[in-house]
Amino acid sequence: MDQYDPGVQLFTSHDGGDTWSLPVTMNGGLTYMDKPILVISPSGRDVYVAFNHKFDNMVVASHDFGRSFLPPQKVNEDHVWWYANGGAYAPNGDVYFALDGESSLSGHGHDFDGPVQVALLRCSPSTTQSCANPTLTSFVDAAQPPPCPVPGCYPDYFAATGSIAIDATGHMAFVYTFSDEPNAPKRLYVRTSDDGVHWTTTTPVNALGDSNVPQIDSGPTAGDFRIAWQDDRTGRFNTWYAKSTDGGSTWGSEVRLSNLGSGAPYKSPDGYTFTDGDYFGIAVGSTGIAHVIWGEADGSSLYCCGDVWYTKGS
User: For the whole model, what pTM was predicted?
Assistant: First the structure.
């Protein structure tokens, strides 16, 4: 991101990150781009970015390793503000983006304090369209999220969200948070599929505290999935991790990643004061090592003050 105009810009590297290209702008003349999610094919040739242009849910694609892009394509016809939260590339060339669609009860512009639709967008591959045959699968309509007590915080800060991962066989796992009671803590669930059309019933993963901003990635072997999320079960926030070896049907014991009780003024043995949940991710390398990065803050205001934390493990 570079403010909102031109907004999202892409940098590419072809030497393991030692050097980087100049920024590539993919806005196609748009003057607002927010919440980008990047998906890259295993070859690196196909590059997709989902973002929102306010009430327009957009996808843009490149088929030359990110050097140039097709025009951004609008993929919604509703008046819902869609945010992308995760994405994955399927072996057949389809691309999936996990979305949450937000609305307002008050009608005051960006104050999205209403129910949230948790959904999955599928784009078919095309050389002429950024997102051919866009298909939206809606999983749940979550109630209004718990309030955010931090000064300057948005009503939708703890909105229900989801994320998607696909293993090398095409097996999919969709993780999301949900509550059907307004302002109540959200639980964490997973659903799986082999074709992106037919999905299993929900598998509960966590019911402690208010689960937020789940991220998921697939490991190097079939059926290997890893989840990271944040919740406040201790009265403070923590970052948690769990692993599945059977395609998401069952999950192993939860591991507390934010286990340092000191090291910053906002940390205690129970966790950290506030979560910078917009800035959070997990990636699993070819050797099976999971890399997790997240933001912690002191809760003095939405934009101050905190740090980025990182850990890795299997």
Answer: 0.95
